[in-house]
Amino acid sequence: MNYTAEIIAVGTELLLGNIANTDAQDVSIALSELGINVFFQTVVGDNVERLKQAVNIAKSRANIIITTGGLGPTFDDLTKQTLAEAFGKKLILNKDVANTIMAYFEKRLPGIKMTNNNLRQAELPEGCVVFDNGVGTAPGCAFESDGTHVLMLPGPPRECREMLKTCVTPYLKKLSESEIHSHNIHIFGLGESAVEEKLRDLMENLQNPTLAPYAKTGEVMLRLTAKARSASEAEKLMKPVLDKVRETLGDIVYGVDTGSLENTVASLLIDHGTSLATAESCTGGLLSKRLTDIPGASNFFFGGLVTYSVASKTTLLGIDPLLIKEKHAVSREVALAMADGARSGLGADIGVGITGLAGPDGDGSDVEPGTVFVALTTNEASFCRRLSLSPDRDRTRAMGASHALDMIRRHLTGLRVVGE
Amino acid sequence: MNYTAEIIAVGTELLLGNIANTDAQDVSIALSELGINVFFQTVVGDNVERLKQAVNIAKSRANIIITTGGLGPTFDDLTKQTLAEAFGKKLILNKDVANTIMAYFEKRLPGIKMTNNNLRQAELPEGCVVFDNGVGTAPGCAFESDGTHVLMLPGPPRECREMLKTCVTPYLKKLSESEIHSHNIHIFGLGESAVEEKLRDLMENLQNPTLAPYAKTGEVMLRLTAKARSASEAEKLMKPVLDKVRETLGDIVYGVDTGSLENTVASLLIDHGTSLATAESCTGGLLSKRLTDIPGASNFFFGGLVTYSVASKTTLLGIDPLLIKEKHAVSREVALAMADGARSGLGADIGVGITGLAGPDGDGSDVEPGTVFVALTTNEASFCRRLSLSPDRDRTRAMGASHALDMIRRHLTGLRVVGE
Predict the structure, then answer these.
(1) pTM value > 0.90
(2) Engineering a disulfide at A252: which of A189, A383, B49, B327 sits with its beta carbon 3.0 to 4.6 angstroms away?
(3) Which residues of B touch A19 (CB under 8 A)?
């Protein structure tokens, strides 16, 4: 049997934009791990007519319908009634669930009288499987009708996530025959469209595994996904594609399943027993922030200096003010001096210096906003990249930090650090 | 004319759960500010047939259709073709847009040959209004057909958000008869449910204006929105509610329409002509990163030291190693010494020191993960807050930085800096 799922999130707060639909994301992740296709997600408010409409559409194109939200005790919680009716089921008071809810109230809120509407949470579609709510009162449930499986989950993200893990995945695993396995291929140094251009022939002809690109600031991730009866069979399907991608893209692939660039760099620094110190101007601490996002960063990160003012470059890094005057604070020479200053000041193996004009405005000199110099120095070598970016403050800063990480990675793995 | 909007987000990555649908949230917020109803949000993959199906359903129940995603240069970017076809429009190469894209490439990536697929981004439905993309290459657009307005926005959240502000809101405002005006009330120091509890009576009885809470890490924002025929009429409706909120919440309201906490602090520092230096341990540069997010930060931010290792606290801040040994690196005394070290080292008016154990793991000592000390010192005064947070690394770091900003704000505005 081939399953197609559709997710319906119920809640007016989603339509007002009060919260992001993280429930749909969590359900999608769980389904994609099970190899179950999701073709549509829908969001509908707390409104019986419109929910009915969404359910009828979903019925026509999916055989697994998963709803989130609208299971609570209040009058606008209408999911169970509406779904039961749509599939010709009655709601019946489940005594076990009613007892659990009463016990919950007695235990958590002694002395507070439970209102009757709380018992509405114990009314469930006849013949359903009850999904216990480990972290709240409203249970979820699942029933089958004419080959369609309907699963209803609570809306609060913590409750939904917990129920996905403990109830939904086991329920759906029983339905599914094949497994899904995937690899994430991480790329820095080429934009999304250029990556796709290089891989177009490969991507267009793939059925299983599939290869899909995801872009984030300055980076591209390719997800390679295979459907098979076992992990080893999936790996066998993915291996030649992974090899081909590596061969085509070369050393701009910085890792497979390694997480972020900072994660990769952190692992490399730890493996090499190499220590790092940073001096940041335009990035204002973003590089050190990203490095210290990694638990255990104290093993390699000796410290950082955010020398945002000209004076601080002199005070903290010992840079000759004449050099800054002569070459400009945003220059190759100052970036290199910053890297050296951080490295010697903190006694680290590698020093990184970043100076640039993040913009949006210029500083009155010839330096264009969006210009960034990123330098890396060690005892033996020194490198500097010059970036000419669009004068978008956030992006310029993000790219400055990412280029620094890329230079560290290249230096530690024996690749060419600057230029092609 | 009464408008009902439907949002269609296009992207397989959403159906796989790779990202949350924040675009739909952002669009919903923008529409709700304009007083336009949204009854459905749909997510569909990069698939022509299913996108067509979603568009046809949306056509039958809404007269504003807003899509996000699928405007890029790659072969799976199909939104424009599909929407144009659904409404009987041709795609035509827009020369102005093509020139802009070519100029963009020439300027940003000199020497790199633009691939032809990038020009596909300049093919737009005949007779459409072009929405310039301020932060990327793919333009958005809008057209009207038989009373239905179709608006297409790019998928990358940054581009979508920017286009909502600069193009979509002005476009839709022209359709609407009444004006919507709003104020954002920014709060730090109380959680969302506590804020709601305090304001419950007020919020429940409001019709126009409305008051809606939005939570982000450690902060709450209340959006006050009024619908009226003019700005001054809207202000008249909002004034008493705004006064009541301020009266109820007191000095935890850090600003109205002031943007982020760092924005507020930056303005205060500039107004007071006060300079700042920071020393960060567990936050690893996050505070200085947030301060330097603000253009013009060099006017008040003299510099920052990221003293992630014990040695760097001694080397860079001149802290007596015995003090660290005796009191522990995560202690009130060390936080204060860090603030003093940064202040005197950089010659700034205010010094801030943050030291903590972000977790998730402990360091073998008595200090609990989630413990953070935030110190602020000046020539005359010194303050230190002790935070006991849950051992969630990202949250602990974010809260440490936010508390530092809150302390600076309180110090500069003559409020009590520590304790209640």
Answers:
(1) no
(2) A189
(3) 25
